[in-house]
Amino acid sequence: MQKILQKKEVKRFVVGILVSFVLGILLDHFLIYPFFKVSTTEVDGSIEQENKSVEEPLVLSSSTQLDRKIEIEKVCKTTVDISGALKHPGVFCLDEGARVIDAVTKAGGFSPDVAYRFVSRKINLAQKLVDNQKIYIPFEDETECTLISFLPQTKEVQNIMTNSGRTNFPTSEDDTSSTIQTSPEVDTDGSGCININSASASQLETISGIGPAMSKKIIEGRPYSKIDDLLNVSGIGDALFKKIKGEVCI
């Protein structure tokens, strides 16, 4: 009888353990697990948010660096001021290594009243530009290219100098007559004048009171838009200017 009671007690104990185990599993599945799942999600969300907050400044930093790089690349390499006989003169930004012709093109090209002869003789359109360079293209009425003859002032030469267009030089009997093109800008009294924009140093030295040093200064001061600009040359004062102004022209 006592053994039977002991077996019943053992069964109750085992059943109690099993019931407790099952209840524990159910409790964990339906009550405890959802709680921890929500908490884990919230924690994961916080971690993800923190990661985003950490990554965003890095992205912004990269974007800022890219913007700065673009701004640096957009900085003008060569800024030039081109004015005068152009369709749209002004200040322009050009690429590094640009030439004078590029600046002219940027300004819309030459205007109809440009001094083409002066430009073709005195302005190097292939010259490379430098930053802050100033370029001036003269108008036709600002400069005149004059053909000067330094032949002895004989009667025959004076007759040639007083004519414009095609004229004949006297030649020997064995030579056929040859023609030259004289310019109407030469003084009609046969005295001639020296173009301060195109004369060589030796030609300038034929002017009264002008020596090698002064002729060099005159050449360095080109181009001149009017004779009075000679007063801007160092060493030419009012007295010397009055002395030479009758011998020079533009």
Automatic annotation (TrEMBL):
What domain of life does the UniProt record list for this protein's source? Bacteria
Stretches for region Disordered: 164-187
| An individual GO BP term | DNA repair
Q: Name one Pfam family in it.
A: SLBB
Q: What are the annotated GO cellular component locations?
A: type II protein secretion system complex
Q: Which SMART domains match?
A: HhH1
- This one is known as Helix-hairpin-helix DNA-binding motif class 1 domain-containing protein
* Species this chain originates from: Candidatus Dojkabacteria bacterium
Provide ranges: composition bias, Polar residues. 164-185
Name all Helix-hairpin-helix DNA-binding motif class domain ranges. 202-221, 228-247
Q: Which residues cross the membrane?
A: 12-36
Instruction: Please name the GO terms that the record assigns under molecular function.
Output: DNA binding
Q: Which SUPFAM superfamilies match?
A: RuvA domain 2-like
Q: Which UniProt keywords apply?
A: Membrane, Transmembrane, Transmembrane helix
